[in-house]
Amino acid sequence: MRLTLPFYCAALLLQGLYLPAGLAQTKLRDYAFGGSGSDFSTAALPTSNGGLLLAGSTFSPAGGDVSQPRFSSGIEADFWLVQTDAQGNKQWDKRFGGTGDDRLLTMLPTADGGYLLCGSSTSGASYDHTAPSRGANDYWVVKIDSRGTKLWDKSYGTSGGDMLTTAVAAPDGGFLLVGWTSSPDDPAPNGDRTEPLLGDSDAWLVKIDAAGTKQWDKRLGGLGYDYVYDAVSTSGGFLIGALPFVPGGDVSGVTHGGNDFWVAKVSDQGAKVWDRLYGGSGNDDLRTMLATPDGGVLVGGYSSSPVSGDKSVAAPAKTSWLLKLDAQGTKQWDNVYNTGTAWTEDDYLSTLALNPLGGYLLAGITAAGPTYGTADTDIWMAAIGMGGDLSWSRVYSGLDHDSPASIVPAPNGSVRLACSTPSGIGRDKTVSSRGGNDFWVLEIGSPALGVRPTQQASFSAALFPNPASATDYVTLEVTGLPDSTPVQVTVLNSVGQVLQTLTLTERPTGRRPLDVSRLPAGVYTVRLQTAQGTVNTQLLKH
Fold first, then answer.
1. Is residue 304 within 8 Å of residue 284, measured between CB atoms?
2. What is the pTM of this model?
3. Which positions ≥6 away from 402 have C-beta within 8 Å?
4. Once rounded to an integer, what is the mean pLDDT over residues 386-405?
5. CA 534 from chain center: how many Å?
6. Domains in the chain and their CATH numbers?
7. Mean pLDDT across the chain, nearest whole number?
């Protein structure tokens, strides 16, 4: 049978094969970029040439891989980007900043093939920062084209400190900027914040359109300090993940013990829909979230709680803790994870990604690797099934304090892990240190995914034309299924955000033209699920 679906992209088909754990975890290569100072990686996206766009902050002067001088006269940071080819060679780098301290936290693809760089800044009007400072720190976004040329920049802030931590693409083509706001000397509405503070610091959401014009803002918080760490787009709005220290205000319910995970859903206009606290009797700190194909969300971080409250699995020390929630915030399962060699007080989950072969990929920090017993930490990575069961885990290590930033599945079926490290050559790091801290990329075996689908598929699928351009339409051909079989199709981007979910119960015939121009160039995942099993594909749009 042939199905024509409204995908705004085309694909390279990646069959859902299972690999033994030893093969699945093989490191293929690594490469690093940096200057003579410290450079910290915070985000990475796949690009249409098969390479990566690496993003973070640099404290380095010009030299090494940093081609531009710093904009400040002191030791403040600037935004820094590195574009690579498919082999990990640097193609270009770009620096953006003002005379203050500018920290790049996240990056999103845009519909025109460019990117939106999102972070915080203390700069006034200077160099790339065109707006005057509103307070101690402002949200700062920079729009660039696919070659790194700046198109515009915008700032949003109050008279106090406003720290952006993440950003989410909105269905209308705009973006939701997410972080926290604090202006204790001026808690009333001021600057771009239209609501008063509830506590010492609150979550602050700023919705902008594709041109950076502010559309609305929303303050959410308890009665103390609230720190926001992640957000995802979901049906009818957004989910915000935070750490509240004092309930009350927008934080409903009572804490389970010490710190709890706090998840709040807001509508596409910022109105709070619901919120929940999740935790045990100890301290539980949220760090990362990932939208799931069924409309739910994974929420991860670390926990020092015993079995109590929402924590159902015991661990002898603080460790990575992951919860699966449905679309209404009801907990479906939870699990704890470690390296399999030792439990330490320094393990936590920091980033998540969808596994194109089914399940999820996890990465975080551990002190139970080769540096066990020292003050240093290593990178821990794992693959789990859809129900949270562990498939494999592995530690990747340099000689110093190594930390992961982003998990990026590659077009060839491998996984690239963007990290930061001050390590020189040793263990898994084969390239020398450029300075105090470098961007470091690990490419892990083809694929480093190794999770068997929950059901072995008895059908196959193909997509064409392949690859797609702005004028292509896409036809999906499925074989081996009875005509009456419903097919659930989910389209996700490289960071696991669900772009489209639909269930096909009828078999449309013929072909329909599809507007691929609305989706930026990049790599995407399509999952087909039926009672007969699951087929996963990886999508590539030029």
1. yes
2. 0.80
3. 365, 376, 377, 378, 379, 396, 419, 420, 421, 423, 429, 440
4. 84
5. 24
6. 43-156 (no CATH), 161-337 (no CATH), 340-450 (no CATH), 460-541 (2.60.40.1930)
7. 82
